Amino acid sequence: MKLRVQRLITPQTIALVAVLLFNWLLFPGFFSVEWKDGRLFGSLIDVLNRGAPVAILAIGMTMVIATKGVDLSVGAVMAIAGAVAATGVESGLTVWQAVPLALVAGLLCGLWNGVLVAVLDIQPIIATLVIMVAGRGIAQLITQGFIVTFNDPSLIYIGTGSALGLPMPVLIAVALLILTTLIVRRTALGLLVEAVGVNRSAARFAGISAMSLLILVYVFSGFCAAVAGIIVAADIHGADANNAGLWLELDAILAVVIGGTSLLGGRFSIPMAVLGAMIIQAMNTGILVSGFPPQFNLIVKAGIIIAILVLQSPVASRLFKRA
Amino acid sequence: MNRSLRPLAATAVIFILAYAAAAFQFPTLVSTRVLGNFLTDNAFLGITAVGMTFVILSGGIDLSVGAVIGFTGVFVAVMISWGGYHPAVAFAIALAVSAAFGAAMGAAIHWLKVPSFIVTLAGMFLARGAASVISADSIPINHEIYDWISQAYWKMPGGGRLSMIGGVMVLVFVLGALLAHRTRFGANVYALGGNAHSAELMGVPIGRTTILIYTLSSTLAGLSGIVFSLYTQAGYSLSAVGVELDAIGAVVIGGTLLTGGYGFVAGTFIGVMLMGLVQTYIIFDGTLSSWWTKIVIGVLLFMFILLQRLVFRAQAARA
């Protein structure tokens, strides 16, 4: 596939470059990357590393939003997966048993959401609200209300280790991005998901099994949330049922929206959503390195959502047409 | 019985059964004392849930209410403790600010044609961010009026105390029910939630109604923030995190249909009481850990969503 330069110039890449340049102006050492102890270090690598969990969530969330749905439960699923992995290794399981167990927990949560949305025909916001509310309770049930800490070196490696000079979370996110994009774009799967998102009954009449596709995207989103949850738990060497992944569902939705995927379903782009996650993280890092209080983070985020909403609205497109 | 009252009746029956089961185990639960604490402890949630009922009746959702509660608390605390204003002045300005905030969100939802979900999400970030920019620390409120209001109560027969803030919640529910079922605005909200397109053809002022709905929800969230600051005697930017979920949960458990157009303010009251009962039962039991609250509320939520689905599917099949 030939990569054309024009295709790389999108509002998202421009925004990311602008945010990075802004960070560089505030903090001149922003672009310096050094090689130490067999891996890369620097603010840019830090943006990639810190942004990886939201990027992974955004990959799953993109598929859900493409079907005109939304998955509010991903933050709570992260907490459940982290709790399962941490409690698993603490009670004597090897990492090869605990991590798959945590992934299965995520898949089950996704399956539950998928069945509620596809089979029982419940609005996605509400269907996924059930696990969003109950999920943290379940995670606390697993950890018995404690913050379970662990010292298993192979589990910690998933969060803080590195390979090929890059931190593990970044590698996992990149692998997931490439794999998902290939599966979705090299097969008809992506097209089918778009068809369901644009018009579910039309897709069904066209012979698409909308029900199993819908279940599949929620299961995939649950899986992505579990991966992100394991990374976050491995990063802090513990599972915090109350705070792991708190509000990350909103960041993930924001990343997908910044990536240009419409909340009304249909056309979607996974790489753009990942780029969106990187823009959010670059902003967070920028606010931190510039010495602004981190409280401004939320206001800046709100400002960006409002700007995107205004730009995407029918009012704005009418104005542009006239101009 | 009127068929449209069935989900409300189901909620009421489940509450009575749950209350009876709990009272069978802990006879002391049946006292006006417990009832009074019920109303006081859930006052801020109940007031918010009334506003949320209107939003959900119109087919929308308001994720910003928890953040508005936090913001109002901080705002009121700053005005009273740092600015030296009289609480009445602070309350009036805080309510005006939250009303304007809600009106802006309603206008954005109507004019920009974006889902209420994403607009109120931005609102949530904005209000939470603004609150923590004003002050990241908890600000105590020491004012004689605050002490007086939070200690004022009406002694119910049986020794229970109906506190002022519990009374405010009951009043908001009564006014909310009148507004929903006895006014033109209420009828417009139902019409909008039933089918926005038909409502527009019927001459319902869509824009005005939408803006008023979110103004109402935010104003009640602001009132709830004031009540919360009376309850805790402080303002803190991170207070009431996740109250929007509790409020949505109470509305759903109260039998209001999430697709809009169907529900009762009285149902929401039972929903709030049922959630309060779950918490009180877990405290009475003593051996159950606090996380069971979340799990039980999640299960209740699921049961009611399922119930609504089955009831309305059966009705659709008959029609």
Automatic annotation (TrEMBL), chain A:
The chain crosses the membrane at residues 7-27, 47-65, 72-89, 95-119, 126-150, 156-184, 205-234, 246-265, 272-292, 298-320. CDD domains: TM_PBP1_transp_AraH_like. It is found in: Cell membrane. It is a multi-pass membrane protein. It comes from the Bacteria. One of its GO terms (molecular function) is transmembrane transporter activity. Pfam families: BPD_transp_2. This is ABC transporter permease. Keywords: Cell membrane, Membrane, Transmembrane, Transmembrane helix. InterPro entries: ABC_transp_permease. GO terms for cellular component: plasma membrane.
From TrEMBL, chain B:
One of its GO terms (molecular function) is transmembrane transporter activity. Keywords: Cell membrane, Membrane, Transmembrane, Transmembrane helix. InterPro entries: ABC_transp_permease. Pfam families: BPD_transp_2. One of its GO terms (cellular component) is plasma membrane. It is a multi-pass membrane protein. NCBIfam families: PRK11618.1. PANTHER family: ABC TRANSPORTER PERMEASE PROTEIN YPHD-RELATED-RELATED, INNER MEMBRANE ABC TRANSPORTER PERMEASE PROTEIN YJFF. This is Sugar ABC transporter permease YjfF.
